[in-house]
Amino acid sequence: MPTWRPLTPNDIAGLMQVANETHPDLPERPEVFINRVSLFPAGCLALEDEDGGQLCGYAISHPIRPRCPPALDSVLVEIPADADHYYIHDVAILPRLRGRGLAAECVARLLSGAARYPVAALVSVYGTEAFWGRFGFNPVVMGEDLAGKLREYGEDAVYLERVMDRLD
């Protein structure tokens, strides 16, 4: 069974193969992923196949300011000090491994890491809104700035948020 582990800069070539297969209409440069791993390694996961050799999925996540996701294919200078929402940039798994609960396992790990943030957010693409709804994510009413940013993600892009359970 494939297993999730921390993503490292050495995984970027394999990540790009997965990204190119799973997101052909939403290309991002390797520098974007290297940037996220260097800025927030705790939010980056690799799915490694049973043999421990091939990357077959990945997840990228990091804090953002409320409703300010980064533009597609953009390199960040830093994670803002006032970033208090947790953004799931991408969860990608090769088609041959879908339906095994690997995405749900990944999302659970990401949400566990996001527990200290009041809100987790993401841009749903490729009609995955129902999938994310299973984890408590719901569409939000968007202002024009956010709606404009989402256009580059495709016509079906929807901004979703999940209010995190807080145990204070």
TrEMBL record:
Q: Which InterPro entries match?
A: Acyl_CoA_acyltransferase (IPR016181), GNAT_dom (IPR000182)
Q: Which residues form the N-acetyltransferase domain?
A: 2-165
What's a Pfam family this protein contains? Acetyltransf_1
Superkingdom of the organism of origin? Eukaryota
- Entry's SUPFAM superfamilies? Acyl-CoA N-acyltransferases (Nat)
Transmembrane spans: none
Molecular function in Gene Ontology: acyltransferase activity, transferring groups other than amino-acyl groups
Know the name of this protein?
N-acetyltransferase domain-containing protein
